[in-house]
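request received
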Amino acid sequence: MKLDLERIEVDRVVFGQENSFADGVLTIDKEDLLENIRHDHRITSLEAEIVHPGEKVRIMPVKDVVEPRIKVDKNGMFPGFIGKESQAGAGKTRVFSGTAVVTTGNVVGFQEGIIDMSGPGADYTPFSQTINVVLTCEVEEGTEEHIHEEILRILGLKAAHYIAEIGLDVEPDKTESFDFKSIAQARNENNDLPLVGYIYMLQSQGLLHDTYVYGVDAKEILPTLISPAKVMDGAIVSGNCVSACDKNSTYLHQNNPVIEELYQRDGQDYNFVATIITNENVTLGDKERSSTMVAEMAESLGLDAVIINEEGFGNPDTDLILNCKKLEQKGIKTVLITDEYAGRDGSSQSLADAAVEADAVVTSGNANEVIELPAMERVIGHDRYADNIAGGFEGSLQEDGSIRVELQAITGSTDQMGYTKLSAKGY
Amino acid sequence: MAEFKIVHYLNQFFGQVGDEDQADLPPQQKKEAVGPGVALNNALGDRAEIVKTIITGDDYFNENKAEAREKIKEFLQEDEVDLIVAGPAFNAGRYGMACGGVAEIADELNLPFVGGIYPENPGYEMYKKFGYFIETGDSVGSMRQGIADIVDFINHYIETDGKPGAPEESGYLPRGIRKNYFQEERGARRAVDMLVKKIKGKEFETEYPMPSFDRVEPKPAVENLADSLVAVVTTGGIVPKGNPDKIEASSASKFGKYKLNGVQDLTDEEFETAHGGYDPVYANQDPDRVLPVDVMRDLEKEGKIGKLHEYYYATVGNGTSVANAKAFGKAIGEELARDGVQAVILTST
Amino acid sequence: MEELIIVTNNPRLQAVENRDFRIERMASLQQVLQRSRDLVHQGAKLVSHPLAGSLKPWQNPYRSIGLKSGEELDFSSLKIMENALEKYRIFGRKQDVLKRQADQMKLAEDFSRIDLELITNVLPEKHSFKKNNAVRGEKIEAGSGKN
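response:
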């Protein structure tokens, strides 16, 4: 399965009279953008703003982040939402690198997600480094939460797709080619190398904890194989609203770092042959079934070792540990990626579950650690939410506009796919 | 006078007040270095100085926690202090718990704490997050080395301006505290590196060691309980009134073996609990609540069990070191096996 | 016969009466956890996980836990319950603050809503407050983007 990612490097994004790209400057016709993405009659107001890295701007509460991508033949990006189901994961994909669409909006009162474009908070979120087109959207009062979430989710995808389309006439700066091999191919080429897979866990517990695969709610899926190239073409879309630090924004799915890093050493140290998606449901029966199927699938594929990452915290720890145990018991070696909830002082047990088999763990940091975020010149969204967002606590909004929050409140700060460099160690 | 001021905490013994007879000594203070503090002070030279020594009896500290803490807090707030040093407590259970308690007080007062302790002393496990504990041997024989290591650490602490760094590099025992930092490579890259090492059977280091498990495989179920000799054993401290073996209220150094011949019910006239650390009123009112001899007698009559063993064993679980607990368990188990006991019911508080 | 038991302090489940499952109503999150633990000791098996999802367990003051009655102690249920209680002991101390805060910010509706959503996963399909009816509502309109 071969995919070309054709990247256009963007230095600056501005609003202008018409859509264009020249000399690193992406110009967007704001009115046309808003008109084209306003997809539902329940949207009462819709605004777009552009922020660049280093600006004294705080964005909150963030709903999702999406990278502008489009198939060169226009068909197939975000399958199940925008693209045709059969087109994703092959051919050419055009990307505006260094940019992102950020959706904000208040689906529930305690929603969360802070992106600081400068200051100490900027070190913790990957999206302080992207040029963000921020969408602020309000919906009719009384709009049910599921609908509100869905409206925002689709809004982000449409905006990312719309913007990427401007790049169709542009000569890309560089092309990265991914050629994901089948097991048979890998055996033919490098028969002596071990077979490696990726167990890709998706948050799927219901309202505000949802992830979509090809437009299908991941809660309803059984563990299955997916082409990593399809993941890059937006086959996995975030419907998550909660736990900003370790929910995987759609952007992170599109740029899944585990897939990228596994691909780097493919054919040298191992053959990377399988990406298995699985869910994190509420009932223990579902957890047992999914983890058993993951282990059996890995076994029947003949995998020797896997990387597993979870999404979220709390009962998903149980899914992570079940997956790890059942795989290790079949002799399949595992490395886990997780973040920690060790309390503000870092002295509590980090995970809600544990196993001796989990002897190789990469941590993306303690999400309870407290950080002070100074006031910003401009806030997109509203400060009022700082006290409510997860990780915020009573009195966290200071009079001078600064806030004291746990890292939990910062979008992507302890991402469990290992996108960032944050980690933790014992003292 | 050195600029860096230290207050030193000692128990009655190392504070040179007296032996076990002074274990009930309430907190006292002396405006000088005492006992091990003298050696400590000399080794610190001009850099730092012990300006005060607080001395408390081990039993007093552990049995009058609120009062002891209040008083010690008061002493500590009287003058400017840069650091609190306690012990070394070696493997002395009550002393270790007291040093740990002082670490907690220091934490409340936002003062740094350095203690000397043997790693298996429960005072370390319980209070490690409140301060820096320096490893010593298990007995007073390791005093000289212990003091030297504490002095090294204090010097390091002063040099690094109170930011001594990771435990293994800086010579203190791990505090069990997770702290964030940025690595060179992103998490996904580190995961792949770890995976390759694991596949190749090379050494790798997990970034999050799972909590350690001390698992005991359960024995198969007792087949015929109705014909079995059953014993009761407790860590809930139920002893004959007066605590004839003087089992300690915390950090027990021994267990007791007591007759149950003819005893149908544990009454408050004949039994009590020696266990500290929880409100003993209900256990003392009716000791069967901790060690259910009355119910065992019922089961005996109903024929559900064969017979209740003629002795029961008791110790106190409160702060008792793992090493001691293991030794007690082994000794009790051997005796029970020798006496032909087939099943044991264990109770705690 | 196996019986489905929902232990809850969620006000949205206060008025629910039916023959398919039994509701045990509690006054606090702590009571919900402890009652569920007690039921496990009495032979019940956990159906739903006692920790909330990515919403941190100590953040949502409402919790509903599903259990199936039974005869034998299920050790894995017990282990999960004890781990949840341990997490509550560490993080639950803020409960009263959070509850007050939730009241102030009128978040109670949202929190109880999330909990209801999670617990409906364990209920029999036909229940009227399952998402298909009360929750789902109108379908999103077909989009008309640029392409």
